[in-house]
Amino acid sequence: MKIRIGVGPVPERLADPVQDDLVTDLEARGIDSFWLSDLVSSPETVDPLIGIAHAAGRTRRLKLGTSVLVLPGRNPAVVAAQLASLAALAPGRVLPVFGVRAARPADRPVYAVSRGSRARVFEEAVRVVRALLTEPVVSYAGEFFQLDAASVAPLPPKPLDLWLSGRAPAGMDRVGRLGDGWLGSAVTPVEAGACRAHILAAADRAGRAIEDDHYGTYLTVVTEDADQRAVDALLARLHEDRPEVGDPRTLLCWGWSDARAQLRRFVDVGLSKFVIRPAGTVTSRTEFLDALTAELLPLQNY
After folding, report:
1. What is the per-residue DSSP string for 222-244?
2. In the chain, what are the domain boundaries?
3. Per residue in 9-61, pLDDT tens?
4. Residue 100 and residue 175: Cα distance in Å, rounded?
5. What's this model's pTM, rounded to 2 decimal places?
6. DSSP designation for 248
7. What does CATH list as the number for 32-160?
8. Which residues contact 20 (CB under 8 A, 6 or more apart)?
9. CATH, range 1-19+164-302
10. What is the C-alpha to C-alpha distance for residues 153 and 80, in angstroms, rounded to an integer?
């Protein structure tokens, strides 16, 4: 499998939250990809589609992902047109990952879709995006979206892989039926292996196949200089979101040695794509990336 190491935003204490030179630094270091999350209310990141468009203009090889782009509440035809434009500007470098709901409760009212219909809206929207990105003309009559001879241009010469997120059984079924890959978050290696097996079974039932190296997850690293208040707040959120885990500390990497060991455990259960992020702000972004480059990048195969 092709093991690839990506990086999310690296917020630096007492620094401008818009890290204009981060992507050029990542590319210079040989890091595979840069990922932006859909966090409307966060002061530490920018809109993912706008952010990766800017990053595309500043780099030549770095891959650019959305992790994740909340699809319910967006017009899927507009999303398809945006992705088609990005793929034309950065051929072979755009990695869209879609999610059902916003990660932060404060952001959820922004996407005006009722809770009871969110999953159905999501599935229909994924189908619309895929159709528009692969077919020259699309007519579609669904429960939520209707298209009459619609099209986006230019169509990508190679269809974009559409990855999905989630960890609930229904979400794993959805990846198997509709997705080209899976990006997890806040999961243990054992859970990730179970998710992968669930997706494979769902894809088999749907008569589909997902490439072996299209499974990945976030790794959140608690560094020695981590802001303890930020770490405590993160642990509280994880405990609320994942009470079944018991100890939320198991969902984080405690230093670079643990991150390296955890990454290998994920590889052992079939994952090969990783997005590394710090647990809150860091004292020095350069020092964080130096450590990442030394400790984890050697695990990336070329």
Report:
1. E-TT--HHHHHHHHHHHHHH-GG
2. 1-19+164-302, 32-160
3. 998 887 665 667 999 999 999 999 999 998 877 776 789 999 999 999 999 99
4. 12
5. 0.94
6. G
7. 3.20.20.30
8. 58
9. 3.20.20.30
10. 9
